[in-house]
Amino acid sequence: MVLPTATSSVLVVDDDSDALVLARETLGAGGISAVSTLSEGRLVQAFLATHPCDLILLDLALADCDGRQLLGEITSTHPELSVLVVSGTNEIATAVSCIHHGAYDYLLKPYPPHRLVDAVHRALGTKARKPAFKAPQGKPSPDPFAGIITQDPAMRELFAYVKAISVTGQSVLVTGETGTGKDLVARAVHSISGRSGGYVPVNVGGFDDTMFADALFGHCRGAFTGAIEARSGLVQRATGGTLLLDEIGDLSPSSQVQLLRLLQDGEYYPLGSDLPKHSTARVVVATSQDLRQLQEAGEFRKDLFYRLSAHHVHMPPLRERIGDIPLLLDHFLAEAAATMGRPKPDVASESRRLLAAYDFPGNVRELRSLVYDALTRTSGRTLAIEPFRRAVSERTESASAPLRFPDRLPTLREVKMQLIAEALKRSAGNQAQAASFLGITRQGLNKRLRGSDC
Predict the structure, then answer these.
(1) How far is the C-alpha of 173 from the C-alpha of 305, rounded, in Å?
(2) How confident is the model over 254-287, as pLDDT tens digits?
(3) Which CATH architecture has domain 412-450?
(4) Domain 9-129 coded CATH 3.40.50.2300
(5) Which of 167, 327, 348, 408 gives 20 to 30 Å between its CA and that of 88?
């Protein structure tokens, strides 16, 4: 295990005197006592000429100079230094720019003390170990995001962030609801990284402690009853490549400890062995759970949480990128038609309106299943609409719950008009579809809109 010692030196650059004091105290409590501080960015290069250090903690918003320009100058003149950028700007584009300019990591203010200490220890440890990979060189590879169908600007911005972090070699946490494409992001990280080894995915959600250790680390002959021969684990299979651990939020406390050892030491023990093995696999983890909430509830280790979240990619649900639904619908329909050897049918406008108004609890995966189901039920030239109607109807019924009212009870007219407005919104202004949502006829809706029956 490579740990920074008290002799590891850190330079903190920030024009906020309170922030300098806090950083010094936080790092000191974390075992790093050799901390120097500067309140002016223009003094950094002169300081480095006479005071060598191992890492720089650089605030991006300096009063006397451009923090991004200074970052570029530091990484150009002192490529051996690790630079952690801190900023109060929560923008993916800013983080991407900093990493492109050579930053090791990007911390958002205000950050928890543990987050800072862990990031510094991780950077110093990585520097001492030397990365076991190189950034991809040579001819360009196929689009690593080809499997993620989107035209959403926020998704394109997310792709830029993934590209920037993929070559760092650090662990990546991918979060998002079921069906959002977390595995596709992990595959993209591996593809962009240019690592020589393979991509090895495994769902650890149902593993007990023994299964987790055996699957990942393997075992020696005689390690347990039935172990008649030695077997290598998935960590060894992912040597020089990428190991995806899906459903990481379900790990037991004991398995969390084993994973933490692998991440911070780069070592693991096969079952039945007291000799450690070294790992060069990059670890990417994915979960549909909120690890921060699990950590605050005492169900997930704090040190493991910060170790895993060196880089965090959150996949938005489909309901937050509804502009992609027509694109995905056409893509999956063409895919399904080719798979079934059938001509691609037309899609009725009502089908498109139903899908646009649906919230897709199963996200992209659910949309794909609905399209395949609809095609199997199609006998003519137009895609069957019934699967879409049924999904919307079942979701509406399951989502029903007791209504909550404000202190002032609304009038019947106010409630009716709010319901009508919501139905029209969900149906993109289509009155026939809105009437169907409300359980009334189109004529009845027209009467209410005219105010003759409110």
Answers:
(1) 9
(2) 999 999 999 988 899 998 888 899 999 999 999 9
(3) Orthogonal Bundle (1.10)
(4) yes
(5) 167
